[in-house]
Amino acid sequence: MKEKLNLALYELKYAFIGIKRHLLLCLSAISAITISLFLMAAFLVVGIHVDHFAMNVQSDLSIHVILDQDIVEDDQIDAIENQILELSNVDSVEFSDKENELELMIDEKGDAFSIYKGEENPLSNAFFVYVQDEKQIQDTSEQIEQIEGVSSSAYGGSSVTQLINLLDMVRKVGYGVILLLLILSIYLIFNTIRTTIFSRHEEIIIMRQVGGTNAFIKRPFEVQGVLIGLFGSLLPVAALYFGYAKLYEVLEGQLFSNLFSLIKPNQIVWQVGLIITLIGLLIGGFASFWAVTKYLKVKR
């Protein structure tokens, strides 16, 4: 146990010595990784919110199916509902009688329509149909219109599908940028560690001559890479912690409407902060392992 502790302290000590001897190079790598991780954090926040917005849109997304005026009997309504439920893309169906339809119209268009309450109600019974795949909502709406007893169906038109496609595109672009930033960060740490190794090649030769194994030689460099990744993640995590809370406060928790409500800071800051820190540690460790393994393999 004592030997393992001494070995860990040795590796940590020489990792800091490596950083100190190549301070400018390491600071350059830390700065570049800080910028990369900051951008990753921003795109992760955007990506998580796009998923959140898409779920909100999908949960509110439904096909409004209006029945013919003469469809008033329970057995007629049940028969149409069963036919709708048999469609492959339909998830659930919610009945809305004509009184409820009038209340919805009053909420949407104003109290002037209150005069139609009671026997003067000209509206028909209806259904709200929720789908499994929102991208097939147009086809599902057209299939429902073919059912006997259905007067019309509407789902918001092309604007809804365009919004869903836009959110999907933003999400894919964001995650693509994150992948590119990951590759860039790994490359930066790889070059930093490789330069450090080349400048300390005499030490490595001496270690080998006195019986040092590859694992013993590699570990201080790997720890150095992990430290670079850790230091590079500190500022992005701090900026996320204070910046997102301020942004949430300024925007009062939403963009444009409740449909685009922001995720509360305590639900997202720690999640993204932990991901960014782990990414910093992993890319630091991986890039260092790659660089030193490649060097030792060549110099075997």
Automatic annotation (TrEMBL):
All copies of domain FtsX extracellular, residue ranges: 62-151
Its transmembrane ranges are: 23-50, 173-190, 226-248, 268-292
Taxonomic superkingdom: Bacteria
Task: Please classify the protein's predominant subcellular localization into one broad category.
Answer: membrane
Q: Where in the cell is it found?
A: Cell membrane
User: Which residue range or ranges hold the ABC3 transporter permease C-terminal domain?
Assistant: 177-297
**NCBIfam families in UniProt:** FtsX_Gpos
Instruction: State the name under which the record lists this protein.
Output: Cell division protein FtsX
